[in-house]
Amino acid sequence: YERGKAAYQAAQCGKCHRFQFEGGGVGHDLTGVGNRFSANDLLESIILPSKVVSDQYASKTVVSTDGR
């Protein structure tokens, strides 16, 4: 746990992700993520964070009818 916490802090994951009521709100809430996903899935998401992005976090571009 302590090594994971240190890595989380060193990589500044908390700028986007929330963990136990602390951190940002742009990315997934990581509290309890180990209970929802396998170790392999978590490792893949850390190494290749853009491989799978939930629809709720996908970005959208809106263009008005006049091109703005």
* Helix-strand string: HEEHH
| Basic shape | elongated
Ranges where pLDDT stays below 50 over 5 or more residues in a row are none
Q: How would you classify the helix and strand content by structural class?
A: mainly alpha
Report the total helices: 3
Q: What is the rounded Rg? A: 15 Å
Distance from N terminus to C terminus (CA atoms, Å) equals: 48 Å
Helicity, as a percent range: 25-40%
Strand content: 5-15%
For the largest beta sheet, what order do the strands appear in spatially? 1-2
Please provide a written account of the structure:
The chain is mainly alpha-helical and 68 residues long. Helices cover 32% and strands 6% of the residues. The protein is built from three helices and two strands. It has a two-stranded antiparallel ribbon with strand order 1-2. The protein starts with a helix and ends in a 21-residue tail after the last helix. 0% of the residues are buried.
List keywords for this structure.
single chain; 68 residues; mainly alpha; two-stranded antiparallel ribbon; elongated
Concise account of the structure shown:
The chain contains 3 helices and 2 strands, in the order H-E-E-H-H. The protein has helices at 2-10, 33-36, 39-47, and strands at 18-19, 22-23.
Please give the structural blueprint.
Blueprint: H1 2-10, E1 18-19, E2 22-23, H2 33-36, H3 39-47
Antiparallel strand pairs: 1-2
